[in-house]
């Protein structure tokens, strides 16, 4: 039985995501990707135009930007908008550790592929900034600098990724994505001066 074109493309993307997360872009070859996917190496050029094309396709396929684009944040109350975005960001990083790790690598290395990552992230964090500014204008949020407020929100939304490094500190308490998201949102909104009902 032959495999359909979408099946082999998805297998290549899944294998690439795993290998890019484990070994980085430079440490992953097209041959390794195809071996892991059980695919002919010529299919990388045919479907993606090369390794860089595979890398970009991984973000297009697995980062839920279209899901976020379907939400009209301008119509949302700033509190609800922050709650929605922060929760989705945390769930994404919690549920797809490979993609999350790929993003971290490129940001830390400031590699030529950083722009692929930034094209995805700027839109998401830009929405958070807009919600912060609108919330401040409406007298809902209280902060001095929008840049500092955004950095604090980013820090709270992404800090759970480092929990694995401090397992001894957390003892045996296991916290799932939903609990982390709820606590992070409460923490962020409290820091912005929102009183709990």
Features:
197 residues, mainly alpha, 11 helices, 70% helix, elongated, transmembrane helix, DNA-binding, membrane, Tet_transcr_reg_TetR-rel_C_sf
Give a short summary of the structure.
By secondary structure, the chain is mainly alpha-helical. Helix content is 70%, strand content 0%.
General description of the model:
The protein is mostly helical. Helices cover 70% and strands 0% of the residues. It has helices spanning 5-23, 30-37, 42-48, 51-62, 65-69, 78-95, 97-109, 114-137, 146-158, 167-170, 177-191. The longest helix has 24 residues, at 114-137. The mean pLDDT is 84.
The string of secondary-structure elements, in order, is HHHHHHHHHHH
Helix residue percentage: over 70%
Compute the separation of the termini in Å. 59 Å
> Tally the helices: what do you get?
11
Low-confidence runs of at least 5 consecutive residues = none
Keywords: DNA-binding, Membrane, Transmembrane, Transmembrane helix
Protein name: TetR family transcriptional regulator
Domain HTH tetR-type: 6-66
Transmembrane segments: 139-158
């Amino acid at each position: 039985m032959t495999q359909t074109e979408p099946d082999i493309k998805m297998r290549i993307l899944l294998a690439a995501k795993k290998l890019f997360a484990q070994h980085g872009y430079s440490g992953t070859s097209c041959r390794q990707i195809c071996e892991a996917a059980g695919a002919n190496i010529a299919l990388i050029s045919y479907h993606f135009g090369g390794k860089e094309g595979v890398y970009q396709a991984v973000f297009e396929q697995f980062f839920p930007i279209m899901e976020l684009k379907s939400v009209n944040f301008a119509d949302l109350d700033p509190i609800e908008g922050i709650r929605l975005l922060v929760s989705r960001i945390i769930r994404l990083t919690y549920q797809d550790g490979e993609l999350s790790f790929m993003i971290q690598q490129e940001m830390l290395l400031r590699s030529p592929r950083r722009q692929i990552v930034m094209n995805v992230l700027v839109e998401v964090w830009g929405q958070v900034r807009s919600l912060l500014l609108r919330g401040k204008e409406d007298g809902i949020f209280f902060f001095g600098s929008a840049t500092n407020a955004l950095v604090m929100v980013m820090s709270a939304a992404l800090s759970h990724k480092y929990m694995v490094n401090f397992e001894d500190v957390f003892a045996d308490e296991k916290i799932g994505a939903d609990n982390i998201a709820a606590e992070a949102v409460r923490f962020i909104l409290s820091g912005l001066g929102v009183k709990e009902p």
